[in-house]
Amino acid sequence: MGSSLSRDFVAGLVAMAIGAFVLFEGSGYALGTARRMGPGFFPVALGGLLLLVGLAITLAGLRTHDRLPKPNPRALVAIPLALVVFALLVERVGFFPAGVAAVLVASAADGGSRPLTALVLALVLVPLAYGLFVLLLGVPIAFVEWRP
Amino acid sequence: MEILDGLQIGFATAFTLQNLLYCFAGVSIGMIVGVLPGIGHLAAISLLMPLTFHVPATSALVMLAGIYYGAQYGGSITSILLNIPGTASSAVICLDGHPMARNGRAGPALLVTTIASFIGSCIAILVLVLLAPPLARVALAFHSADYFAMMLLGLVASGALVDEKPLIGIASVLIGLVIGLAGIDVNSGAMRFTFGVPDMFNGISIIVLAMALFGIVEVISSVGRTGGIHPGAKRLTFRGLMPSREETRRSTAPILRGAALGTGIGILPGAGGGSMASFMAYAVEKRVAREPGRFGKGAIEGIAAPESANNAAAQSAFIPTLTLGIPGDAIMALMLGALMIHGIMPGPRVVTESPELFWGLAVSFLVGNLMLLVLNIPLIQVWVKILQIPYRLMFPAIVLLIAVGSYSIGRSSFDVMMIAGLGFAGYLLLGLGFSAAPILLGFILGPLLEENLRRSLVVSRGDFAVFVERPISATFVALSVAMLAWAVYSGLRRRKEQAAAEAAATEDDGPGADRPATHPMKTREERNLR
């Protein structure tokens, strides 16, 4: 990453961007008056504050030199992806295949893990989770189904 | 008399088979996550919140609270045996606990921390029982302006005190408030930040946000950590558990001082899960000791006081949460979230209108602490075994639990996807220095803050002076402003020192530099210790 950008500087920019977005979106709702606050009053106030605080962080960040941390891209993709895979599969093919797929995808987050170990782990964990949530707590989810 | 009646209800509630089981489950899980350095109690509570969806409110809170104070017991085991803090608040136990273990006094160190934990908790529970009902009565007279000001103080404190960069802490609070905006505005019926997605109409669930920020982010940043956590634990042998007469004598007063300090700090907003309490207790002991040189080399005072303090704080933190409905930190915010999920509006009426909840919870604390006292020592060999489970086997289980748990709440795939998205964004945000606890606190207090602001301004006919005219709200507003000013000032000063240090030496990245700080407290505490 760019060595000239300090971590605080980028954090400030992100805060400003969120603030600006909230201000923009919030100004589309009825503002009302202080006496009768509309749905836009609080969002606009928050957006404005966040924009200001973000500006202060950005300016202060110009003088610091903390480097941006290196993210762990493999885990950053695999872990959320495991949840997405589960969400997409559970209503179509049921609990067991969705759970196994989620464990396998999640395991891929660790470069050192072997597929076979992950599969064995999945075959142990998924029935346990099924027992806890479906059999014990009574959440109605089919173990296997086919509704593509 | 009121207290006796209350306790009677409490005992009747806490001693039902169901609540005893949930209490036991809670403290056992708390112990385990306390022992494991990779899983925080915030993550554990977030992960298990969906389970509590399927049980009554009191049982749910009994279990979630058990995880919290159970973790305070467990954390010190890892600190003493391995010199690694199991939880942020037990980091300070490493300083003298581990030297004791190396001197062959691991047994007494563990016994003393267990007893200190128990005594600290009991004193705080006593204060809770005595203080909460009258405080709740007083709070009934509070107006919306007072609530607004108290919440303001809580938010400012969580942003400005817990984080070493106060401005970024404040920005984190604001981001949390913004996330809390999503959904239908209860007053006007307007859709805000829903982007036309029907699944967003009810806003984002606290479980979804907590699982993303404390579960997913923690997993992403911990994956890849090498293998079995610490085989070194096996080598430690126990030559008896009993502390010597000298050790007993030395730890009595520190335990009591720690309990008093911890109880006081736990009530304050922004106290951050007992960590501040344990660090201050350590500092106090070092100051009052006749031979401060013994500290860091296995002084038993250095484990007795902090351990008593962090457990006391973990219990007394419930006082403002249950009586005012204002959580002091992220854990208490989760507790409030669990209450709201069960349709209980937090506030002073909880004590009077749901006595079985308040008193049942208070008595369950006592029961849970007794269980921990009995469980802790005999099961140490088991806890040490658990430490040897490699993280690469553990994290897929955590991900599965998050996926299934969040799906089980409303059988909504959207919620699961939302966790993925928020987890992804949260990892990047925390990597930039934003912190998770103030975000969560802002999120939970946001709607309440807006509602009280609206009400205050309706009553005052749009005059903002209402917040400084009432003595209670004026006090809290003044405290918030003072805290903000102090935080910004000390932040600037620290930055200047840092810049000077940087100019003197090239920056050292350290082992943790490539990971986002999921526990901002840790780095700050480590710094304070030097």
- Counting DSSP H or I runs of 4 or more residues, the number of helices of chain A is 5
Backbone CA Rg of chain B = 22 Å
Q: How helical, in percent, are the residues of chain A?
A: 55-70%
Q: Figure out the total of helices of chain B.
A: 23
Largest sheet of chain B: 2 strands, antiparallel
| Amount of helix of chain B | over 70%
Report low-confidence residues of chain A grouped into runs of 5 or more: none
Please give the largest β-sheet of chain A: none
Straight-line N-to-C gap of chain A:
42 Å
Largest interface: A-B, 79 and 75 residues
Approximate shape of chain B: globular
Task: Describe the structure in your own words.
The complex is a heterodimer of chains A (148) and B (530). Chain A is mainly α. Chain A has two domains: 7-61; 73-136, no CATH class. Helix content of chain A is 66%, strand content 0%. Chain A has five helices and no strands. Chain A has helices spanning 7-26, 41-61, 73-93, 95-107, 115-136. The longest helix of chain A has 22 residues, at 115-136. Chain A is flat and about 55 Å long. The model of chain A has no long low-confidence stretch (mean pLDDT 88). Chain B is mostly helical and 530 residues long. Chain B has one domain (2-226, 238-503, 511-529). Chain B is 72% helix and 1% strand. Chain B is built from 23 helices and two strands. In chain B, strand 1 (183-184) and strand 2 form a beta hairpin. In chain B, helix 1 (2-14) crosses helix 16 (355-376), helix 9 packs across helix 19 and helix 10 (245-267) packs parallel to helix 12 (301-316). Residues 226-232 and 506-530 of chain B have low confidence and may be disordered. Chains A and B meet through helix 1, helix 2, helix 3, helix 4 and helix 5 of A and helix 8, helix 9, helix 18, helix 19 and helix 20 of B.
